[in-house]
Amino acid sequence: MFNQAFFLNISLMTVLSASCSHFSSLHISAHNRTLIDDTSLYVINKLFPVNLHSALFQSPNTTGAQCSNGLDIILGNSFQDTFKFWDSFAVPWTGIAEGHFLFLGQPEECVNAKSGLFPVKAKSFPNTKPFLLGIAFSNQFKIQTAVCMPSSCSNDDVAEIFEPLFEDLNLESDILVTSRSNFKPDGAFYIAGFIYGMLICLVFTGTSLAAYRHLSERYAEARSDLIPLCEDIPDEVEVASRVKSANSGTIDKSLFSRGSRIVSLLLCFDFQANFSKLITPPRQDVSHLSVLNGIRTMTLGWVVLAHTMLHEGTSGVQDNPFYVVSISDNFLIQGMFNASLSVDSFFLMSGMLVMMGSLKALEKQKNGAKFWIMYYVHRVIRLWPALLLALLFLVGLYPLLPQLFYSPLFETESFRSLSYQCRGSYWVTVALFVNNFDNNNDPNRKPCMTWTWYLADDMQFYCISPIFIILSKFNKKMGALLISGCILISTFTTLGVSAHHHIGPIGNPLANPATIESSQVWTDRIYEWPFFHFQVYGIGLLLGLVFSEQDIIRQKLNSLRLKTRLATISGLWFYAIIAAGVAVYGVYPSMNGHLMGNGAAAMYNATFRILWSTALGIMITLCAWGYGGVLNRALSANFWVPFARIGYTAYIIHVVIIWIWLNSAETSVRFSTVYIALQFTGIVVCVYCLAIVVSCFIEAPFIQLEKLAFSR
Question: What does the domain layout of the chain look like in residue ranges?
């Protein structure tokens, strides 16, 4: 009876088995970079004839009773009743030559095996769900394939059922089974639910109160327009009218007076007012650095695109990751491989604004102690609300999400889960901005919210910035000298570490396969530790000093003869273009086989961020001083303002959205130019839409509360 059910699957496996002989000579590489070694090809050759369905007919007696009973019921039913169950199994071992190691089958069909096109007549048919069967081999080669099993089976039961299949192949393999996690409410869930509920109530109350005030003011204005028509009314009628108006329940204006502290606090959560402030462009005469709005937004788009491709590739959902490797020598794709420069753009702008804003504020500030206290308080109030809300979501509410999807990838008990990574006390390092020193080498746990290492670096830079600001306030030359010295120390430290560990250009093993073992040093140290990024932040501090003296510098520039001034400006633009091009595309020759030596790679790693930051700094300066032309008008358009204002919130939540999308996948996705463009567009829209809501719900209200509390 079941021979017909398996006919298609067995026939396919037979065809694939017949072609296995071709795999012995298959050597997939990109410029001599081997992607599948000979040992992995041997394993693949052994796997092709394996039929996963057959394991269910030979389940061991040690399987759990409930799981065994569920299987007995399924195997005892007719082909029509079990068709969707068998059909939902993944057909593995296809597309491996392109890096396809994850086979999801049909998760929705598995969960709904009792209904649909072929409804099950048997009333006792058990509930089923997909399990992800991971087969890891001794050479680190791993394949994952989905199987449909009764929901009563545990992960250990499923592993025990399928282990004999691979033991018979005489392959050194380990079976790891995962499945969609069952939700169990815990303390974190109730705390998160309470806080989110309170926040929603505050926003609803504040918005309703503001709407009530607006309507009452409109009503009062309408009544005031009628006063001249009532001047000839007899006194007794006028008195009666006023008494009736007083008894009609008109609002007491004292409710909205300045003395009503509670109302003022609630009005900080007015969603409509916060949204209006978000989309309202600033006055043109107060923002000569409006070019930063466009740069911030485009830089964040660069970050989202890079993280989308990175996490999609590491998740296993992409069924042709080797294709991405094969196009690594493409000129246009270099921007993605060198996307780490995007965060350096943020470091540069952060350093510039901190120095420039602090020096300007200190000129007006009489109480220096109060200023420096508020310097840190304001930073914490600015960063904490959105960050802690995201942490609360990951720890308390994220485990609920698997119940909304069918995919076996959405499990919360694995180190791959964003929720699992932040459990216990691991979220504390994120909240205290020290997670950039977390250990990335632990195979059983990844750091919590890994992408927030940038926030940790930036916060640490912010904390030490007063040293440079205070010195620069009293003596700008000494301040610039100290900053320049620290930049040199950071540069030579990067040079030494890169040369000592033989790290390839930008730590990318594709640029030099011999450096693949040292690439982790780049990720753990050079890429995330603040010592190596200070060179960019320091250049930002110097740029802030330039803008604090811009009146003098611009006067000197304008005093030059026209030809000299044009030559100076043209030379600066020329340097900016060349420096930015070298920073982004300097690895291009290595991607095409012209490998850098250790010394050249170390020099590039130590200087490419300096080239990028100086190029970007020159562009910002020239645009702000009126020498940007069309570029300045494009980047300074009011269109960018709302996106720039919610950039921080968007940065925090964008990876969460990416992983929700990846974990909910029920089929593999195939990389192509059109697909990645449409995918990126959809993710960016979702990120910014959610960022608007989060910003208006918590970020903007806390900014208003700070102003209310400290009269900022």
Answer: 2-179, 187-269, 284-710
What residues contact 125, with CB distance under 8 A and at least 6 apart?
Answer: 73, 74, 77, 81, 113, 114
| Amino acid, res. 463 | C
Helix (H) or strand (E) holding 73: helix 65-75
Backbone φ/ψ region at 464: left (φ over 0), alpha (ψ -120 to 50), beta = alpha
Name which of 175-189, 297-311, 435-449 the model is least confident about: 435-449
Sheet of strand 102-103: strand arrangement: 102-103, 142-150, 128-137, 173-179
Residue closest to 36 by CA, chosen among 23, 47, 46: 23
Q: What is the 3-state secondary structure (H, E, C) of 375-389?
A: HHHHHHHHHHHHHHH
Tokens of 210: 């503001």
Place of tokens 């759990």: 64
d(CA 352, CA 618): 12
Predicted pLDDT at 334:
84
Q: How far apart are CA 509 and CA 325, in angstroms?
A: 11
Decide if 448 contacts 405 (C-beta within 8 A): no
Mean pLDDT of the region 422-426: 85
How many other CB atoms are found less than 10 A from the CB of residue 405? Answer: 18
Residue type, 498: S
In sign, the C-alpha dihedral spanning 322, 601, 517, 436 is negative
327/170: higher pLDDT: 327
- Give yes or no for a contact between 430 and 449, defined as CB atoms under 8 angstroms apart: yes
Which three-class secondary structure state does DSSP give residue 145? strand
Q: How far is CA 258 from CA 253, 255, 263, 314, in A?
A: 10, 9, 9, 55
